[in-house]
Amino acid sequence: MTEEHELKDPVLPLGRPTIGSAGNTGTWRTSKPVFIEENCIKCYQCWVACPEGTIRVDSKGEFPYVDYVYCKGCGMCVHVCPKGALEMKPE
Amino acid sequence: MVQTLEDTNVTLLTGNEAVANAVRLAKPQVIAAYPITPQTKIVETLSGMVASGELDCEYINVESEHSAMGAAIGASLAGVRTFTATSSHGLLYMGELVWWAGLTRIPIVMPVVNRSLNPWNIWPDHQDSMSFRDAGWIQLYAKNNQEVLDLTLCAFKIAEHHKIWMPVMVCLDGFILSHTSAQVNIPTQEQVDDFLPPFKPLAMLDSDNPFAHGSLTDSKGIWEQRMSLIDGFNNARVIIPQILREFANKFGRLSGDMIEVTGNLDDSDVGIIALGTLGEEAENSLAVLAERGIRAITIRPRIFRPFPKKELIACLKKIPKVLIIDRAVSFGNAGQIAIEVQSELFANKMEIDLHQKIMGLGGMDVTYVDIADEVEKIM
Amino acid sequence: MSIKITDMMDRPDVLLRGNFACAGCGLSVAYRSAISALDKPIVVIPACCASVIQSLHPNVTYNVPTLNIAFAAHASAASGITRAKKMRGEDYTVVIWSGDGGTYDIGLSTWSGAAERNENIIHFCYDNGFYSNTGAQRSGATPRGAVTTTTPAGKSEKRKSVARIMAAHDIPYIATASVGYPRDIYAKSKKAAKIEGYKFILIDAPCPTGWNSDPAITQELGQLAVKTGYFPLYEIVNGKLVFSKQGSKYCDPTNRVPIEEYLDKQGRFSQMTPKNIEDLKKDLQFEWDMLAKLE
Fold it and tell me: How high is the pLDDT of residue A1?
């Protein structure tokens, strides 16, 4: 240890909130949910059921859409839709 | 030290009361603790100070030592100065989170009132704190009740230095210090405020700047954090002496930095290395040894982590022979101080007539005559 | 409290998309619904799936201040945060987000202490009935008969009633909720936040990976658990139990959907014999009877 030792700042174990923290998880998908807009009644059941938050709603009153970059293709949105406004299609 | 009637700041305090008074003056905002002999009087005294309003602090009566450290980690990250204290099996039960606090850099101050481990024995040795010398904590060892108070105050300043930012253990021998009254000079609040600035968090749980602390980390992140911890200890080697010197300038005590040398280093036949009260007992053996014609000195590390390598080697270069007394054992090898001193001697390509002795386990009484006898045996 | 889905959209995402969670993760639905209901949450997460799904340092999926801590240290760490924020004069909602392993088993002592001190904390337990992040081992929450990797022939003991243990602490608010009804999770979370003291919300969170079920039916499984009487929905406010709207009619066993409809959709129950099913039904009725005494 020399007297002119450089005093480095501590590296603390802090992680920062990041979209896509696990990468583009859309690549996990084998099939994808697709909206049939004319059937959608904007009940947003799909939005609340989606574990990932990949069903997006721009602002209140808008049609929801899917963020395919991250959608893992679980199909929950399709399963909960009361009006058949979503269907699973193979990738 | 002779007490004069004029000096009203000097009072009789046990080691545990000395800790409590230092903590009162340091003004932590959260204390979380669980009682264990011989630490209990620290937390009893502090809970009394909180109850009476003497200390403005949230006191959490947790249900275990594991939770004491958990609460301390949470409180520290929420942005306040935080304190806990434990001993022996309490330290072991807390163990998982002692490592958590060390490896994730939580600046908690925790006295460990040294006590033996099982089978049940409440008397002092260093097996408890020595088991955690690798856990990323700074470790200080006090020789008397005054030093308990002084080092506890310094501990907060060391832990919270932004280039260190690590937890600190202040180790004091159970009963010998914790339950024995001795004269202690208690500084005033103004003096302490001038020495110890308010807690300034380096990172705090905050909605405006959200982060996840201690999240799942791969080898690259672990490497980066471990290397930073090594850097932190290297920083501490530079900064701790500065803090002790500042304390010495302001309070007139703790001179001598990381290690205290007693006797004439430049003209001695043998050195004795020991921690805590054994170090002080060794100081008292010097006069006996002088009567027996042996010129001895003591070399007492106040700081065991970071290990004061440079300072020890500088001393050892001047003496032909050394006796290292350990109050704990690394089973399967030797006493921890002996192991570490030998490693430094090798690293510095030094040969010295080195002897080691394990003494005082389970509270076995070690007097200055016992130490003198051990030194005489190796002469 | 009646909650519309659009009410739940008020806040920015608390769980950011593109994380490590499995497809169809029940915990993720529970987390989004519960945490988005809270003002300025600080979340304490012990070892559990929630510590894994946050992805790898330095990136995390959680968009709120989060402290990861050892398995049995959630309630102690949360206690420390609560008290420190009180000393700092800052208003936060301090939350424990623990799995059933951390709540039913290893962390029982730490939450019991915090509940006894009545610390101002909301303790959420997302309950998937086994150790999910280590790959599906038995926990105290695993129901009788369920196959886990450490009960390959099916668990031979009944599931522990953690809510009744919690009730014995006489804390001001206890609720059960289900991923089958996300709006109910949101409403109960919001309600808990208004109450001072230790609050506990147990959330049934299906795990398609560990339960060997179709990821698309996670929400349906949550609803079936309620409709079959497997998972009663209720609140205990200051010691008084009230069955929740979605679940109250299932107090009467004749209103319940046959339990087989729930079991048949999960691979973990594929080894169940008729005797196992009868024993499980007895366990469930026993729990209903015990809860009725708290009404």
Answer: 46
